[in-house]
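B., you asked whether I could sanity-check this one before it goes into the benchmark set. Here's the sequence:
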Amino acid sequence: MEKKFGNKDEELVGNTSQQRNWRGIAIALLVIVLVCSLIVVAIILVTPRDTDKKIGEKFTFEDFLDQEYKTKYFHPIWLSGEEKFVYRNYEGSLIEHNCITNATAFIMDNSTFRELDAHNFKLSADKQYVLLSYDVHQIYRHSTIAKYKIYNVNTRMHEDLKGPEGLQFQYVGWGPKGHSLIFVQLNNLFYKKDIEDAPIQLTHDGVPDEIYNGIPDWVYEEEVLSSDNAVWWSPDGNSILYAMFNDTSVMKFEYVIYGDTHDPYVQSRRIAYPKAGTRNPTFTLRILNLNNMTTHNLEPPAEFKNRDYYFTTVVWQDNNHIFVSWLNREQNYSIHSLCGRENGACINNHRVLAEGGWVESNVRPLFTSDGRYYFIILPQRDGSSGHFKHIAKIESSQLRAEGRRQFLTNGMWDVMEIVGYDDELQIIYFIAIQSDDPRKRHLYSTSTNSNAENFKHPECLTCSYAEDCQYVSASFGVSGKFYVLGCEGPAIPIYILRSTDGGDLVVLEDNHLLKQKLANKAMPKADYFRIPISEHEQIWGKLLLPPVLKKEEVFAYPILMSVYGSPGTQMVTERFSLSWEHSLCSTHGIIIGFVDGRGSGGRGDNWLHANYKQFGTVEVDDTLAAGRFFSDLTYVNSSKKAIWGWSHGGFLTASVLGSGKNVFECGIAVAPVTDWRYYDSIYTERYMGTPHPGDNEDAYNASNISGKAIHFKSSRFLLIHGTGDDNVHFQNSAQLIRALTEADIYFRTQIYTDQQHSLNGGNTQKHLYETMEDFLLECFTGSSGKFEKSKASPENKQEPFEEEE
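And here's what the prediction gave me:
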């Protein structure tokens, strides 16, 4: 190329070699090399290392669904009056274990279980027969309609249990002696003293969906008894106490069943479902003498007559007396009564009044062998720190109107469960949580003898048992001499038979197959945090970190917070679990976050009752605080944060998104409560009172998610519900859909036809989790697909996502 200047042509060329600046060239080359090196280092730093070969294979979604990855828990069934228990071994056979000799005896093999596709069994008191349920149809959470086989242990033959109404039963259960049994058909009770005897009909007033005898109605099954029956045998087997529920005045909730695709018309299902502030079922507790068929009704406390109240606990003190716990509808005042079998008369033995909260209804007394005392968990004040749950010893004499009380434990910690009592040594065993570290649960013992040296000085039996045994369960035999210890975390659960004076006897379940399956898997790592929410208060948080995460690297990972928030529950514990979230973390590099805010369990009643009568307030604030805290961690991508929850967790998720704080870019609510007026009376009123004017109407209005619809504009939202949900009705999501539509909010919905609250029928569960996973990947990457395709890029700070119009 040439350029002319005037009449003289000059060639535009560089200087001669002699004129070149070698020093400048060298410096330039060094700069180029340095820049290239920095670029390479930056790429290395922001690109997660492909360490699959070093750390193992990913724990995938398919693994999560695979039954071989399900944890096996061990639940011994202790035999009355013996140091023995029964269980099904790894082959599925029914085995009896003798704790004294450590020997096992065969009862029945697995072939009959397989033949009938039966899973549940009940062994008669004389160990001559086994009840096997099959062709089981789930009704609600605990209730079923099923057929039963009676297996003869001696002949190894089985035959159908037949009742006057055919082969289908709502409940069947053995008595405490011999092989007598009780069963329920069409809401009526029947009794067979012997297998070969004709059944005797005990009640005649049962009406489907209205009058229930020996089985609970919907709300008592779900919120009080957590059982499929309401029958309690006397220890000698001569009497039963049963509950009769009357739902005729309860409002009926009706929902559509779409049924088979070939049916051109849909069906309706109606259930008696008392919602907050509406009419409750009534009930009668009846004692029935099975020898002479006489019946007496138990009399409730005079303070509860002519007003709404509940019964929450029934325990036979001995053959002639029954302990009953009564509770007012407000659920802040409880009376413990001791009632006589012969006439049904009751004496009020003890009262519990909650201050600024509710009375726990799921407590069960444990009586001494002579019946003179019982042990029960009650709130005890610890100065300005408020009340904590502790064990009280209460006199149960029928001669005294009020039993004298003495606490056996005290201090700033919570007793969660009484698990055993050694009557001979006067030692009680219990599970407790230290309030300074509610992640752990340990087994303790203390003397019940006020003259003993260790009286009120509990000993922790498992605190130093094993480093990976920090969350325990315990199941004791009747004598209190032997127990099955469950080390349920942080390691894979293992169950050991132990003697209270001799240590370990035998390992009963160690989940060795699960250990083998996980040995080559790259599993998430748990990290715990104390998150400040004020100058003097902290909440506990937990993160599941991807196996490839290196905190020193500059790459930041997206985070999904999993929430629940029901009062008294805990998400941040050291209990082992394998969940859908684990597959997200291992496969897609998504950090999983958990938080236990105010209202969670294990930290005393002041903490527990923090959101009393104000759902959607402090627990929402604490979830937001945790989201901000996690967002500030160097390895968390602050522009890729999501939250999800199911049921009460769906309410908390929606409350967070509807807060207008814009902490999370995306959220998923599964079967959420969106208006507490729509949920059942017992659960809702326990924590929120009623929605009536003059009670707590304003708090109900303030917690209504539909009223927060406009704030969903700043986040992506996926709403999921089953149309056949008998628990949290589809009505909740339907009303939120209307509100979001009217607010012109773009969102996504996933409806599951005829599916109940658990969303586990057919292919529903697989489809559910795939739908949520796809939504999250789209949220974090901008499009559906594998997260790995985009995770090599460093964090890109973004403005909050704007919904499409």
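One thing to flag: DSSP finds 14 helices and 47 strands in the chain. Otherwise nothing jumped out at me.
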